[in-house]
Amino acid sequence: MAKKPAAAATITVEQIGSPIRREAKQRQTLIGLKLNKLHRTSTLEDTPAVRGMIEKVKHLVRVVDGQ
């Protein structure tokens, strides 16, 4: 029998800043994080790629929960 993959760690982020008057790359990063309006939250897999995206827009998002 095949083993079930371990449950991946998740991270929850909330958008706290507006993308208005921001660079296009930052707006696209927010969309990639499944955020595009203030106070929306998104639960994502905790991977190095997601951590890098959060770092690029750290002034616009807040990490709510990192399990």
UniProtKB/TrEMBL annotation:
<dbReference type="GO" id="GO:0003735">
    <property type="term" value="F:structural constituent of ribosome"/>
</dbReference>
<keyword id="KW-0689">Ribosomal protein</keyword>
<keyword id="KW-0687">Ribonucleoprotein</keyword>
<dbReference type="Pfam" id="PF00327">
    <property type="entry name" value="Ribosomal_L30"/>
</dbReference>
<dbReference type="InterPro" id="IPR036919">
    <property type="entry name" value="Ribo_uL30_ferredoxin-like_sf"/>
</dbReference>
<dbReference type="InterPro" id="IPR016082">
    <property type="entry name" value="Ribosomal_uL30_ferredoxin-like"/>
</dbReference>
<protein>
    <recommendedName>
        <fullName>Large ribosomal subunit protein uL30</fullName>
    </recommendedName>
</protein>
<dbReference type="InterPro" id="IPR005996">
    <property type="entry name" value="Ribosomal_uL30_bac-type"/>
</dbReference>
<dbReference type="GO" id="GO:0006412">
    <property type="term" value="P:translation"/>
</dbReference>
<comment type="subunit">
    <text>Part of the 50S ribosomal subunit.</text>
</comment>
<dbReference type="GO" id="GO:0022625">
    <property type="term" value="C:cytosolic large ribosomal subunit"/>
</dbReference>
<feature type="domain" description="Large ribosomal subunit protein uL30-like ferredoxin-like fold">
    <location>
        <begin position="12"/>
        <end position="61"/>
    </location>
</feature>
<comment type="similarity">
    <text>Belongs to the universal ribosomal protein uL30 family.</text>
</comment>
